[in-house]
Amino acid sequence: MFTSKVYKLSPVFIQNILLSSRAFIRKKLRENKECEQLTKELIAHDYDSEALKQYQSKTLKNVLTEAQRNIAFYQRFADDINTFPYIDKAEVNSNKDRFLSPNKSGVVVKGSTSGTTGAPLSIPQNMQSVITEQAFINRMMHWAGIEHNDKRAWLRGDMIVPQEQKKGPFWRYSYFENMILLSSFHLAQKNLDGYLNAMQNYGVKAIQAYPSSIVTLAKHLESNDTYYQGTLKSIITSSESLSKEDKALVERRFKCTVFDWYGLFERVAAIASCEHGRYHILTDYAHVELLPAGKAENGRDRAEIVGTNFNNSLYPLVRYKTGDHVLLSDETSCPCGRVFPIIDSIEGRMGDYLIAEDGQKVHILNHIPKGVDGLIASQFIQDKKNEITILVVTDKNKFNNEQCSILTKNAKERLGKSISFKIQEVKSIPRTKNGKIRQAICLL
User: Fold this and answer.
1) Cβ(324)–Cβ(348) below 8 Å
2) In this model, does residue 439 exceed pLDDT 90?
């Protein structure tokens, strides 16, 4: 809708009406009695290990049975999940039609993965899948203490205003959702105070945001040694990796808890953080296996997420290798009391990497900007073996030659002394078509 001529050429008040009408229709389709009932059932799993185990076991069995019965790719396997092979995006893309169920009925919703680390994967869903996904979103809102009538801010990848627009306001309103929607594509430093004021003036109680977007605002607050002036219940982040350092920064500057959500469009895994900061694997969302993948720098065991989706009978994926990694935790219980398994942290997609001087791929780059004063956002671009450009958005009053040297020193310590780094100041970091920021782009 956002890219249509009707929307782009309409006055702001008409755009608000179009947004609100779209939200009303989506709400009616997704949040029905079935969704409400499933939300209650999911919330009941939080503290009941036996109910959770029964739900997970029953759902997995149904998924495997239906996959064998209806999906060409799976018809040769037994009903034990260990007889199914591991698959990945490339294999699914090579066998697209063989994963599609012939049992199509009602509305089919089509979408795809972003494709930022390879070819995008197109995945159809039925309305049952959409409704179920909404129930899990509702439970996450419940974890975050967000109530039905709370005003919210939405700061994600929607093209709320045309990218070429240079003057504000860079936000619109969805009246049926009590929501202000703000563009992630216009977070230039000169606009940041306007974003903060717009949310404060609207009286939002919660923010749903891409990590890169909310971290940009938090770093702006930090560079000005101030705090968000509104009163928030919580912030929910998703769709990008969120480092522990950035999570702590956002919580400090916005004076509330961040509830981070990890999920994929393939619907093969979901991980959510609670009010105590622990990450929980949601075992009623999908069947998750953790394949050993060596040790992290801090000595913790690393594992790749492999998932089997529960909530898309039209396109079931069994034992799908995500390419995303987590660090395992020694904890077996959480102060929150929820009974889901705990992991230490999410490393995120391993597709964003740089080549170090020894030829090794380096995926984890979060600590390179650490300790650099006045740095609002950054991105690493490598198109030659020993040359890397670092795009930076900065507070010019604080980011000076000394800070530039610290950034270069951190990068050399991580990637190698022989690599040359060019630091290029920009007004904003380029985003993908989905409004996300890639941490690193390697063109080698």
Assistant:
1) yes
2) no
Domain layout of the chain by residue ranges: 5-349, 354-442
Q: What is the full DSSP assignment across 40-96?
A: HHHHHHTT-HHHHHHHHHHHHHHHHHHHHHH-GGGTTS-SSGGGSPPB-HHHHHHTG
Torsion, Cα of 317, 323, 324, 329 (10° steps): 90
Superfamily of domain 354-442: ANL, C-terminal domain (3.30.300.30)
Domains 5-349 and 354-442 share a fold: no
C-alpha to C-alpha distance for 204 and 195, rounded to whole angstroms: 12
**Could you tell me whether strands 179-182 and 152-155 are parallel, antiparallel, or unpaired per DSSP bridges?**
parallel
For residue range 320-350, what is the model confidence (pLDDT) as tens digits? Answer: 999 889 999 999 999 999 999 999 998 865 5
CATH code for the domain defined by 5-349: 3.40.50.12780
Considering the entire predicted model, what is its pTM?
0.83
Helices 33-45 and 127-143, interaxial angle, to 10°? 50
Q: What token pair was written down for 297?
A: 């720098």
Q: How far apart, in whole angstroms, are the C-alpha atoms of residue 121 and residue 248?
A: 33
Alpha-carbon distance of 342 to 315, in angstroms, equals: 28
Kindly state the greatest CA–CA separation across the chain: 64
Helices (DSSP H) in 171-310: which residue ranges? 192-202, 211-223, 244-254
> What are the backbone dihedrals phi and psi of residue 382, each rounded to the nearest 5 degrees, phi first?
-125, 115
How would you classify the pairing of strands 387-394 and 375-384? antiparallel
**Tokens coding 160:** 């709320």
